[in-house]
Design a protein that fits this description.
mainly alpha; globular
Length: 80
Amino acid sequence: MIICSCNVISDTAIRNIVTAADITFGSPAQVYDCLGCTVQCGLCSRSVKRILDERQGDRVAAAVWPVQAEPVPCAMVSVA
């Protein structure tokens, strides 16, 4: 789906650059810079920010909920 009509950038292109880059993006403008363009009208900034937040959530979830080789037995899990 096209996220930015001004620069014709798809959500796939944004997700690819966000996941492939070795940096953490702090703003949509940094994503556009990495893609070689600039924010024009700004209507897409909210959608780009949502993708950045999703990626940040993935990183936080990975740190909090690491994948284990074996599942933790239910009896060992404490509910706080």
